[in-house]
Amino acid sequence: MKRGQAIAAAVALVLLAGCASEARLPSATHQLGIHRASTASADGLQPMRDRHSGVRLWVHPRALLTERDVAASELAMTPDGEPAVILTLSDSGREVLAELTRQSLMQPLAIVLDGELRLAPVVREPVRDGRVALTGFDSLDEAEALVRGWGPK
């Protein structure tokens, strides 16, 4: 999937989220990190590659948002029928995401799940609603397991 298609799918997912399954609260079962990233090597940045797209990024080691910032997770399907997980961030997480995306226009972000680069979207506009769509799952079972892992404690 090309970057433009991925962005369009993410936007569509936000619109579809209202129709998604029951929201669930997060637990510490899975690790999430949303990091600043660069397309060029720089001191202190860690190289990572998205296994699906092959995109290579150099990722800042400190995540600005983590699973602790997730208020709820929901299972959804992309317009192409692929599984996705919609994360709704806490109020403080929403503020961090809005500022991060405002400062990162036309730059990639690294979305790392359980130590693996899962998405590398280029920020086209600030994300103010505090919602993040995770895609690129190998199966519906994998996406469902993530939502179950972030289910009620």
Question: How would you describe this protein?
Answer:
- This protein has 153 residues and is of the alpha+beta class.
- The protein has 3 helices and 9 strands, in the order H-E-E-E-E-E-E-H-E-E-E-H.
- The termini are far apart.
Q: What secondary-structure arrangement, pairings included, does this model have?
A:
Layout: H1 3-16, E1 32-38, E2 46-49, E3 56-59, E4 65-66, E5 70-77, E6 83-89, H2 91-103, E7 109-113, E8 116-119, E9 131-134, H3 140-149
Antiparallel strand pairs: 1-3, 1-4, 1-7, 2-3, 5-6, 6-9, 7-8
In brief:
This protein has 153 residues and is of the alpha+beta class. The chain is 24% helix and 29% strand. The strands form two sheets. Strands 1, 2, 3, 4, 7 and 8 form a six-stranded antiparallel beta sheet that branches.
Properties at a glance:
153 residues; alpha+beta; Gyrase A, domain 2; 6-stranded antiparallel β-sheet; 3-stranded antiparallel β-sheet; 24% helix; 29% strand; disordered N terminus
Tally of domains:
1
Largest β-sheet summary: 6 strands, antiparallel
First-last Cα distance: 35 Å
CATH top level class name: Alpha Beta
